[in-house]
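Q: Structure for this?
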Amino acid sequence: MTAEIICVGTELLLGDILNSNSQFLAIELAALGIGHYYQTVVGDNPERIKQVLQIARLRSSILLLTGGLGPTPDDLTHETLADFFGVGMVEKPEVIADITQKYAARGRKMAASNRKQASIPAGSDILPNPTGTAPGIIWQPRPDLFILTFPGVPSEMHRMWRETAVPYLKSQGWGKQIVHSRMLRFWGIAESTLADKVASFFDIANPTVAPYASKGQVRLRISAKAESIAAAEELIAPVEEQIKNVAGSDYFGADEDTLAGVVGELLQEAGQTLAVAESCTGGGLGQMLTGIPGSSSYFLGGAIAYHNSVKESILKVDPQDLAEFGAVSDKVAQQMAKGAIEAFGSTWGLSITGIAGPGGGTDDKPVGLVYIGLAGPGGEVESFEYRFGALKSRDLIRHFSACTALDRLRRKLLRFT
Amino acid sequence: MTAEIICVGTELLLGDILNSNSQFLAIELAALGIGHYYQTVVGDNPERIKQVLQIARLRSSILLLTGGLGPTPDDLTHETLADFFGVGMVEKPEVIADITQKYAARGRKMAASNRKQASIPAGSDILPNPTGTAPGIIWQPRPDLFILTFPGVPSEMHRMWRETAVPYLKSQGWGKQIVHSRMLRFWGIAESTLADKVASFFDIANPTVAPYASKGQVRLRISAKAESIAAAEELIAPVEEQIKNVAGSDYFGADEDTLAGVVGELLQEAGQTLAVAESCTGGGLGQMLTGIPGSSSYFLGGAIAYHNSVKESILKVDPQDLAEFGAVSDKVAQQMAKGAIEAFGSTWGLSITGIAGPGGGTDDKPVGLVYIGLAGPGGEVESFEYRFGALKSRDLIRHFSACTALDRLRRKLLRFT
C-alpha cells in the first residue's frame, strides 16, 4: 500500500517553477510512514494525464495530485479524473457560495471563470481550501484506490494537507507506524565542522541523525520510528541532549524556531526592547523581527538608513567619522547602534552596514564586507566585522547579514539571562 | 521525438532535497525546442528504475537521467541501464586516470569506492565531468533511443549539460527549432479577471499564451516556436502589444522586472527620491526596494514605525489621531507618508499600516486590513484601504501590503511621466 505523487502543470515542464510540492508531500508521507516510490510530473494535457493515471493506478494505492484546479481553461485535473473513471462532473453549490463569499470579503465579485472550480467528479468529496478559491477532492473511485487533489499553490496545498488530508488518511488506517523528527538548528558554525563534532551520531539506527545546510543555517534532523509520537520523542530526547552539549551556543533552536523568534523570547524574558538601524539590509532585519507574531511587545522599530543623510539625521552618526572611516566601518556601525537606542528609546540597538554588491566593492572594502553594531544598556557598544565573500549574491549577503546580527544579539542576551 | 527527465535518488523520495535538476533540464529543453511531457522521480532501486525505463522508452526518444552515479553501493544507475538493455559493464582506464588525477590535485588518493564510477555500459560513451568524479554517459542503445546520464550534484550536472550534452544533441539534429518566451507581469488584477479579458489569446497556436499566478502577481507567458530568437520575437511582439493594450496599467513589466525595479526606474527617470514608513511590514518594503542594485540613487531610507511611539517621534503622527482613529487608519497612513517626506527629505513618502495577524483583529478592523499612504511633492497625500482577507497568513498579508504599496506608487509615477 504505497502512495504516489503526481504534479500536474505545463509550467513545471517549462521549468517556470520549482517543484516544491513534491518535496513537501515527500516529507509529509515519510513522517506518516507511508511509503512512496514514484513522483511524476505531467503537463495540463488530458490524454497524458490519463496515461499517467493508468500507470500510477497499477502500482500505488493513494494518488496525490497537485495542480490544474485553477479557473482557467487549461486547468483540467478534475475533469480528467472524472473522464478517466467514467463519471460526470457535479457542481457543488457550497463551493460557489464559498468562492462568492471569499471575493465579497475583498470587495470583489466572483469572475465567471471561477464557476468551473465548483464542479468535481461525481462521488468525490470536497477537500476544503480555507484560503484560496480552488477546492480539492477526496475520492475513492475504486475499493483499493484513494485519490486526493490539491491546488498547485504551495501555501494553500500545505494547509489543506494538514487540516483535512492527514486526518482523513489516518482515519483510513494509514500512518500507524509513524516517523517523528526533531530538527535542531545552528548558526555560526560550518556544516562540515558540526558534522565532524557529531560524527558518532551518524551511525546510530533509531533515531537517525542527518545534517542539512542552507543559506548559512546548519540543521541536524533526528528521526525516530515508533508506534507513537511520545515513544519517538523518548528515543530522540537523549540524542538531542548530547548533541546540544557538543554544539554549545551554536545551537539556537529546534523545529519551527527562528533566530528572530529566539531573540524575541529572550528579550521578552528580560523585559527589554530592541530597535534596529539598517543600511545594506534596507529593512530585512526589521522584517525578520516583525515576522514573529507579537513582536510589538519588544520590537519598537528602526531606521532604514540607506542614504548617509539618514545616518546623520536620524541616527546622529558623526559626519566626520562617515567621511574619515566610510559608511562601512566599525565606527559607523557602533554609532548607528547607539543612535537607534537614542532615537527609539530601546534597551538594545542593533545595526548593519555593509557592501551587498554586486557593485561598490574596493580592494580595501570588498563586496561582502559587513559590520554589525550592538549597543546595550549602560552605554556599552560593540561591533563585529564579517567578510561573507565577494562572490556571494546580493540577496545572500543581505540574508547572512540580518541573520548574523540576530545571532550576535542572541549570544549577548544568553549571557544576560 | 520528445525527451523525458528521470531523476534517480531515494533522497528525493524522502524529501531531503528539492528537485532543482528537473527544473534546470526543463528550462534547457524548452530553450532547445525539444519537447518533453513527463518527469519522473524514482528511488535508488534497480527494479523500479527498470520499470520507469520501460515506460519512458515507449513514449520518449531522449532519456535524461540524473543521480545514482556516485561511489556508494546504492548508486546503481549505470548498472541498471546496462542490465535493462542486456549489455555488460566496461571499465574505462581514462576515467580511473581522471579520478586519480583529481584526487591528487587535492593532495589525496583515490578511494577504492571510486573505482566503480569508471565502469559504464558497453557501447556507451563517456560524458565527461570536469569538476566531479562521476562521469555520465551518452548512449544510443537502440536506433530510436538516446540516453544521457548526469550526476545529481547540480553544479556538476549543469556544466556537463552545457559543455557536452547540448553540442551532442545539436549534432544529432535536435534543437534546430527553438522556443522563446516572454513573461508579462501584472499587479492589481485577479488571475481569473485577466484570463477573462485575454481569453481570445488562449486559443492561438504560435505563439501560445498561458496564465500563471502566485502571491498576488499574475503572469502571462507568451511562447513562440521559431528558427531563431529574432524570428520568435517577431511572433511574440504583436501579441504582447495587444495584451498590454487590453491590460492597461495592470501590466507592470516583463521577464525579470519586479515592482521594486520598475518603481526605481520611474523614480530615476523623474529624478525623484523615496522614503518609506512601515508599520506592519516592519522593513519588508524597504528590503524590496533595496534588493535592486543601485537603489541608493533614489531610495533614501525609512522608518520602521512598529511601536506607536516611533510613529509619533520620528514621523510626527498626531497622538490624538492615533488615539481617536487607531494606528490602522487612513488618517495615520497619510500622516506616516507625510512624516517620511519630512524626516528623510524625499520627494515621495510611502507608508503601510495594517493588521498582519494572526492576532490583533476585531470585527471593525479584521486581520488583513491594511492602509497604504502616499505623499508626494507639493503636500499632496492620499491613502488606500485594502482588505487582503483574515484567513491569509501573516507572511502573505505583509507581502501583499509591500507589493501593493509599490504598485500604488508605480501607478502614481506613471501619471507623472
